[in-house]
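Example with several molecule types.
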Amino acid sequence: MSSLSPIQIKKTADGSNTLYDPALDETYHSLNGALSESYHVYIKNGLLKQLPVAGNAINVLEIGFGTAMNALLSLEYLPKDVTCNYYSLEPYPLDTSLIQAYYQGFSEQPPNLSLLDKMLASVNVWQNIQPNFQMMVSDSKLQDLEDELVPDTVKPFDLVFYDAFAPSRQPEMWSLSSLEKVSRLMKAGALLTTYCAQGQFKRNLKELGFALEHPQGANGKREMTLAFKL
Ligand SMILES: C[S@@+](CC[C@H](N)C(=O)[O-])C[C@H]1O[C@@H](n2cnc3c(N)ncnc32)[C@H](O)[C@@H]1O
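Resulting structure tokens for the full complex:
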């Protein structure tokens, strides 16, 4: 995040790339497949699960915008007759040139890559990416997420992509107080999805009253977490 050594592009097992941050000694996605992991956790077990519940408009909160992969995949899988308001937190934005180089190395590129520049164009303003997809990347930290910060057009949220670095690297991102901030902004019936299935994180979600499910994780990983706000 704040490394002096530059962030590196790394090939993953499905032919897509991830990024490696030497300062954290952590990758942005699983080395077993970045694109397949994002699809499995955030689209198949997130967007596609929550669309029938949300109706003709879905409000999405993402924790950690990073490479824009989850936003690009959401665009790809969003039905034409559904509107998506996408709000993503990223206090440590990557260089645009790095993100562009990152996607050039994919064996198969995401179909909406031509919209990437528009997504990266500015922070803290609503962007009309396409008629049914509006988004804002906010430079605030999860720890600073407050109701007043989030525009009325996007809240309460139907769906949360909880894509922070692992608890071993950034424990504060998975704490009870961070989760409480997110929970307060979610509708009843909203879904939080994440690759993480760490014990303390699951106990924190239970303490906040979420109902948990643990489907199989991406690329053979034993489990991931779905947390439904009751
Ligand atoms: C695992 S990466 C995932 C990024 C992204 N979803 C992707 O597919 O590339 C975690 C992201 O969380 C961001 N992050 C770090 N600290 C944060 C904080 N305090 N609040 C919100 N996001 C943070 C990082 O900069 C990084 O982009």
